[in-house]
Amino acid sequence: MADNAQLIGRDDVDDVEAILSIVNTEVDELVHVVEDNADAIFTWDYEKGARPALDRLYEKAKTSQWNGSTDLPWDTEVDLEKVVAQNFLQNSADGFGIADFDLVGTPFEKWNDKQWMELGIESNNWTLSQFMHGEQGALICTAKIVETVPWIDAKYYAATQVMDEARHVEVFARYLDEKLTGHYPVNTHLRLLLDDIVNDSRWDMTYLGMQIMVEGLALAAFGFIHTMTTEPLLKQLLRYVMSDEARHVAFGVLSLQEYYVNLTDAEMFERQQFAYEASVRMRDRFLQQEVWERMGVDVKTAVELVINTPARKLFQMMLFSKIVPNCKKLGLLDRNDQWLRRRFEELGVIQFEDWVDTGEEYESFAIEELARSGAATL
Ligand SMILES: [Fe+2]
Ligand SMILES: [Fe+2]
């Protein structure tokens, strides 16, 4: 049975030095090439609705399109310092909870208000940059699913998701360009994960990596930031994106449910390991090592402080609130002597297992729901 060293390159999941030893060496490259190793599959079975749940999702997607250019209030003035003051610095001097610790002897000992403000602005730039890069990952993965999935209802639905993801890349890129002050290259852990997903030749692994893991995490993270932020343009942008993401995660759950039923224990074990690897990479990426580099502080010291703050622990846990119930629904938690359950216990996220899964939840995220309940919920 594979151990941590084989799966994630280190024995201790919290080994900060090992996490930080992986860095992005391609920061100046304009393109990044990944072998996708997959066969394109034609199907001659055109019977629409053979998979009713996927067909319903496809019909829903057709009437839920929105226009990133005209449906969002792009004329909103974004005062970054005000946004950071309201959203990052409100609860602690830095928004991370680092400033609540004894900082004597740390790189932060002599930091003034301006530096904490700068950290908030950089952190905001970093977070939205990684969302943008992740959205491009989703665009590429979903285009791959159109080619590789053997069912016509799934090809139809995936085609709508390709359009959704193009729109998401577009709106995050525009927000970064017009409203923020600079963006970051893709985080190395996120890039490794996207490479692994695209690289895998098995069509269901694209779904597991993207629709279940990356998009499950995105849906939780967008929801959290949507609730917290006081910036009206970002709030609305995230709400619109979430209405699509909920469908995307449902697409993963509905497709894999059918496929996983027939897999052997050995095949399921490969999926469990893949889900665990993806979980660790996503956790690592949120340590935002590039922000500390840009701020000129010792990255290891900063990260070791951050991972011990209660705010960070809570945020990190919350990121798994969609992933864990969806993995449970797919039978991934308990096959092979509860292998993935044990890993999620170690990561401290198993408590979400009975939260609502996303197979049906997408209806409540729909934009019409938004219109019905009024702008107050935006
Ligand atoms: Fe997306
Ligand atoms: Fe998506």
Could you estimate the helical fraction of the residues in percent?
Answer: 55-70%
- Ligands (ions, cofactors included): fe (ii) ion
Average pLDDT taken over every residue: 90
Structural class: mainly alpha
Query: What is the CA-CA span between the terminal residues?
Result: 47 Å
SSE blueprint and pairings:
Elements: H1 4-8, H2 16-20, H3 52-62, H4 80-87, H5 113-148, H6 152-179, H7 188-199, H8 203-228, H9 232-260, H10 265-285, H11 289-295, H12 299-306, H13 310-318, H14 323-329, H15 335-347, H16 367-373
Summarize this, please?
This protein has 378 residues and is mostly helical.
Would you mind describing this structure in some detail?
By secondary structure, the protein is mainly α. The protein has one domain: Ferritin (Up-down Bundle), CATH 1.20.1260. The protein contains 16 helices and no strands. It has helices at 4-8, 16-20, 52-62, 80-87, 113-148, 152-179, 188-199, 203-228, 232-260, 265-285, 289-295, 299-306, 310-318, 323-329, 335-347, 367-373. Helix 8 runs antiparallel to helix 9. It is globular, with a radius of gyration of 21 Å. The protein starts with a helix and ends in a 5-residue tail after the last helix. The mean pLDDT is 90. Bound molecules: fe (ii) ion (2 copies). One fe (ii) ion is lined by residues 138, 165, 215, 245, 248.
Annotation keywords:
378 residues, mainly alpha, Ferritin, binds fe (ii) ion
